[in-house]
């Protein structure tokens, strides 16, 4: 069983989702207000992969019109 997304990719397990994802708390990684598909969002996702964290934070911005998460 892989211990991270990177290990899963190396093993050819394409549908791997980190175990205990719900046990990771918000203090371990920050949500992002970056636009989905933007270079900024991809950089955040890359950092999360490298750190062995779940790709998605429950409070990430998820659409263009997610105005509640746009920094002022």
The structural class is mainly alpha
The total count of strands amounts to 0
Which quaternary structure do these chains form? single chain
Query: How much helicity do the residues have?
Result: 25-40%
- Written as H for each helix and E for each strand, in order along the chain, the element string is HH
Biggest sheet character: none
For the terminal residues, how far apart are their CA atoms?
42 Å
Strand content: under 5%
Overall tally of domains: 1
Extract low-pLDDT stretches: none
Question: pLDDT average, as an integer?
Answer: 79
What is the overall shape?
A: elongated
Helix tally equals 2
C-alpha Rg, in Å? 13 Å
Notes on the protein architecture:
- This protein is mainly alpha-helical.
- It has one domain.
- It is 28% helix and 0% strand.
- It has two helices and no strands.
- The chain has helices at residues 5-11, 39-51.
- The termini are far apart.
- 6% of the residues are buried.
